[in-house]
Protein: ATP-binding cassette domain-containing protein
Organism: Kosakonia calanthes
Amino acid sequence: MIELDHLVAGYGRLAITPALCGTLERGSMTAIVGANGCGKSTLLKTLAGFLLPVSGVLHWQPARPTIGWLAQRHALESQFPVTVQEVVSMGCWPRVSLFRGLNRDARKRVAQGLERVGLTAMARETIDTLSGGQFQRMLFARVWVQNAPLVMLDEPFTGIDEITSQILMEQIVDMHRAGQTLLAVLHDSERVTRYFPQTLRLGENVAHWGATEQQVREKCHA
Ligand SMILES: Nc1ncnc2c1ncn2[C@@H]1O[C@H](COP(=O)(O)OP(=O)(O)OP(=O)(O)O)[C@@H](O)[C@H]1O
């Protein structure tokens, strides 16, 4: 799906990551891990197209698909006067007409998305009433409704309790099972080992990219 050809992510001319070579296969599920400040989010934003590469090239095969993006909580204005259902419905854009509104299938998918994350009862609440965990559930429902071929998640479990994290992890696994390609920045190594078949570990001057199992073995022997 994406081939990285000596890709260096950073800001302007400032390189943050080492040069990365490799392929993100269609249908894969990859965790990006590494120490604080090593450039995980910077790399994700570069792959999503929010930042230009410092050097190197990204090749999309066949073409850049729609990307489902789950930003950290602060990126969405939680005082904005919209309801939970309206935010989740945004996952249907641009497939439905803004003027005609949601058709029956789209409304059904929005309802399913809300149910998956346990927010059905809160559908008509405005988002300023949500707790941090409920807010994150809502963003997951939106990404699930969107059903994009490629989904990128930046630290989706930060500040989220274990029960909610597990519910959200199940949504990620289901999206992977449905054939979507998943790429997530994560800190929890247990979750990475348990659920993510592929890992991209960023170090200061070098990156290791491959089967998670292999990387855990190599780390243990280091
Ligand atoms: N707009 C920017 N301009 C210049 N440098 C930046 C900018 N944003 C972030 N950085 C720097 O880039 C480096 C990598 O930041 P990034 O957020 O990608 O790291 P991270 O691995 O995701 O960290 P964490 O695990 O703490 O979330 C940091 O040193 C950070 O200070």
